[in-house]
Amino acid sequence: MSKIKVNDELQEVTLPLTVTGLIQLNNVLQPDMVSVQLNGEFVERGEFDATELKEGDEVDFLYFMGGGC
Amino acid sequence: MDFTAEQIERYSRHILLQDVGVEGQEKISNGKVLVIGAGGLGAPILLYLAAAGVGTLGIIDGDVVDLSNLQRQVIHFTPDVGKPKVESAKEKILQINPEVKVVTYHQFFTAENAFDIIKDYDFVVDGTDNFPVKFLINDACVLAGKPFSHGGILRFDGQTLTHLPGTACYRCAFHSPPPPNAVPTCSQAGVLGAIAGMLGTIQAAEVLKFLTGAGDLLTNRLLTFNAKTMNFRTVNLKQNKKCPICGEHRSITQLVESEQAVCEIKSKK
């Protein structure tokens, strides 16, 4: 098992794993609506499938929040 | 500016603060702030900025007060149902603080009026309830070099960031608006009323920090919280080189409005 940080929390995952795989593992409600930062850099949506994670990576999932009403 | 004895008493708790003082209160009193949306976020933002003595408060909102607004839009009261929100908000602001100059725009913020309205203000606050306008505020402010605060709430969650020219913008993190109805709005999914107060007061604090220069703004950071766990988190952001409006290859050079979510059209009936 390898350790990565997702939204500041340690997760143990089995590599190889892509960003898309991590999104699935975390049961993200709307996978096509999440913004992803990997080690402080944004990953383009089209690159999620091809971006492989490695031990010690820090991933942030950012979600749309459109309310204010 | 020389404060009267009454003003010194009114603002004494600010003046006592080492980071504000008389000088900071003068900056607040000279400040011109535009609040876009007089709803869930706009309500606490406007109430606190009025109480703080911000010199000029602009309010833009084309809606009228609806009974379903009162669960969280604390600047509007039951007798205000049916009244334009900008008028209802102005009345409360002047009761809290008659010194504030209130400028009302009973219309929606659009690509056509955006630049003309924001040019008169030092700082813009997003208190809107839909993605097309949130992106429009971002684009207008980035293109005009205007500082602004983004705020979003949904269910038990909130997020906010502050943008100054040269720092990460909303599009750096959220490239473009989601398709209509892909992400629910408060009117579709609900929102805990107090969340609007939690996030709106954070935005109001950012405005006062900006005006006085106190502390560190939420620039290059996205603050998110969840009220179920009461966990607050700041995610560090940096300007995204691929951002379509402030990145290296800019595809957005003028304002364009994206499609409104269906619920918005419905709520404007």
- Largest sheet: number of strands, sense, barrel closure of chain A: 5 strands, mixed
Rg estimate of chain A, integer Å: 12 Å
Question: What is the total tally of β strands of chain A?
Answer: 5
- The strands making up the biggest β-sheet of chain A line up spatially as 2-1-5-3-4
Identify the CATH architecture of chain A.
Roll
Instruction: Tell me the β content of chain B.
Output: 15-25%
Shape of chain A: globular
Strand tally of chain B: 8
- Biggest sheet layout of chain B: 8 strands, mixed
CATH class of chain B: Alpha Beta
Mean pLDDT of chain A: 94
Please report the distance between the alpha carbons of the first and last residues of chain B.
Answer: 46 Å
Low-confidence stretches of chain A: none
Essential attributes:
heterodimer; A: Ubiquitin-like (UB roll); 1 helix; B: alpha/beta; Rossmann fold; 11 helices; 36% helix; 17% strand
Descriptive overview:
The complex is a heterodimer of chains A (69) and B (269). With 69 residues, chain A is mainly β. Chain A has a 5-stranded mixed beta sheet, with no helix packed on it. Chain A has a single domain, classed as Ubiquitin-like (UB roll) (Roll). Helices cover 10% and strands 35% of the residues of chain A. Chain B has a single domain, classed as NAD(P)-binding Rossmann-like Domain (Rossmann fold). In chain B, strands 3-2-1-4-5-6-7-8 form an 8-stranded mixed beta sheet, sandwiched between helices. In chain B, helix 7 links the parallel strand 4 and strand 5. The chains are: A mainly beta (69), B alpha/beta (269). Chains A and B meet through strand 5 of A and strand 5, strand 6 and strand 8 of B.
List the helices and strands and how they pair.
The complex is a heterodimer of chains A (69) and B (269).
Chain A: E1 2-6, E2 9-13, H1 19-25, E3 34-38, E4 41-43, E5 58-63
Parallel strand pairs in A: 1-5
Antiparallel strand pairs in A: 1-2, 3-4, 3-5
Chain B: H1 5-10, H2 12-15, H3 21-30, E1 32-36, H4 42-52, E2 56-60, H5 85-96, E3 101-105, H6 114-118, E4 123-126, H7 131-144, E5 148-154, E6 157-163, H8 170-173, H9 186-189, H10 193-212, E7 221-226, E8 231-236, H11 262-267
Parallel strand pairs in B: 1-2, 1-4, 2-3, 4-5
Antiparallel strand pairs in B: 5-6, 6-7, 7-8
Helix pairs in contact in B: 4-5, 4-10
